[in-house]
């Protein structure tokens, strides 16, 4: 642990409290500050640190963990209030924040290092905090125009809580997170919004695909409004491209829907003609989606790898999932990825176990011998 305290964390939401818990677990002194007495008290009671007051020792590091629309104001104020501290922020928008701090803080801005840990959850607030939130995650460090020693302090902070520092420019960062974080959030919310008026009988058919696509739609609307507006340019560009793709897709699918139904004049067993334009358009979107998804980094951020998937029926009963993991371990197989598909009202779920292809057959045989029902893929 190379981070020296005290570390003052402004904002006791998910990121701020998670960072505080991680630092406290490593023995670093942490001070907390928040405009919400309730949030501050909860973080304190969780063991994240002690409230900062006028008698508190001067911090070595100040971390501003508040919404991006007010981040620059607080960073500038903290640079003035603590003239010997390195100040960082963890907002998910960097260009506007960095530019405003540089413009307003003058020479003191050399002690400011913008950063952004690529970690989060759909739940917000101190109650959702996790000391392991940053473990294995990239932590972007925007060190442009910062004192190199100040940048090193923030890089060490990231490493000390288990993250991997990644140096990027502010503009490059904002374009990247627009594609991998901000735009997906809006798309998930748009899909989930279509469910508002859907009947209960239709919702009862929901499967894991819908849950996967809409999981992040449960995120905090107020926080995300500030994030999206703060990164409006890159997000709008991406939405415009998606809009063009949707427009072309809708046009082709509508053409198929408008074709006269020739089923009454088609001989029994004969294939019904489908508009080739619609087939091509859907195939193109799906194929491009396959290609894009295959580019997402694999385990531990490495190159994407193809795994074999073993499917096992798991009874909905206490201890069954633990027994499954134990039996997989006893077979000497490492789980590369895992998910559980469980439809409402069903007495069992399907465990999807991703393993190296060479291990798949042996695992299926070992689980079958243990009495598990292995489902053919």
UniProtKB/TrEMBL annotation:
Gene Ontology MF: a single term: prephenate dehydrogenase (NAD+) activity
Domain of life: Bacteria
GO annotation, biological process: tyrosine biosynthetic process
Entry-linked SUPFAM superfamilies: 6-phosphogluconate dehydrogenase C-terminal domain-like, NAD(P)-binding Rossmann-fold domains
Keyword check for Chaperone: no
Prephenate/arogenate dehydrogenase domain residues: 5-284
Keyword DNA-binding: no
Record keywords, A-Z: Oxidoreductase
Pfam families attached to this UniProt entry: PDH_C, PDH_N
Family affiliation: Belongs to the prephenate/arogenate dehydrogenase family.
Protein name: Prephenate dehydrogenase
């Amino acid at each position: 642990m190379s981070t020296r305290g005290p570390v003052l964390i402004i904002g006791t939401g998910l990121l701020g409290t998670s960072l505080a818990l991680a630092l406290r677990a490593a023995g670093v002194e942490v001070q907390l500050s928040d405009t919400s007495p309730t949030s501050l008290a909860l973080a304190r009671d969780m063991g994240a640190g002690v409230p900062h007051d006028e008698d508190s020792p001067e911090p070595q590091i100040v971390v501003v963990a508040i919404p991006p629309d007010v981040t620059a104001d607080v960073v500038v104020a903290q640079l003035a209030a603590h003239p010997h501290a390195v100040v960082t922020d963890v907002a998910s928008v960097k260009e506007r924040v960095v530019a405003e701090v540089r413009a307003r803080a003058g020479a003191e801005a050399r002690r400011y290092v913008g950063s952004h840990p690529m970690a989060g959850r759909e739940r917000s607030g101190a109650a959702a905090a996790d000391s392991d939130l940053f473990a294995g995650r990239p932590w972007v460090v925007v060190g442009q125009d910062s004192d190199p020693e100040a940048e090193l302090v923030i890089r060490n902070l990231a490493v000390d809580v288990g993250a991997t520092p990644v140096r990027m420019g502010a503009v490059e960062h904002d374009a990247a997170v627009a594609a991998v974080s901000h735009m997906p959030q809006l798309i998930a919310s748009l899909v989930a919004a279509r469910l508002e008026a859907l009947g209960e009988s239709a919702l009862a058919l929901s499967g894991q695909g819908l849950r996967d696509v809409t999981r992040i739609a449960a995120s905090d609307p107020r926080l995300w409004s500030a994030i999206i507006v703060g990164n409006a340019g890159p997000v709008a560009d991406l939405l415009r491209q998606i809009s063009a793709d949707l427009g072309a897709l809708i046009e082709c699918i509508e053409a198929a829907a408008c074709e006269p139904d020739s089923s009454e004049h088609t001989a029994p067993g004969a294939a019904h003609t489908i508009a080739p334009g619609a087939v091509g358009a859907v195939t193109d979107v799906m194929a491009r989606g396959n290609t894009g998804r295959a580019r997402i980094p694999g385990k531990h951020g490495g190159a994407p790898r193809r795994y074999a998937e073993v499917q096992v029926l798991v009874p909905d009963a206490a201890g069954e999932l633990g027994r499954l993991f134990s039996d997989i371990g006893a077979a000497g197989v490492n789980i590369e990825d895992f998910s559980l598909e469980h439809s409402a009202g069903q007495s069992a779920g399907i465990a999807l176990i991703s393993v190296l292809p060479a291990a798949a057959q042996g695992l299926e045989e070992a689980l079958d011998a243990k009495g598990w029902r292995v489902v053919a893929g």
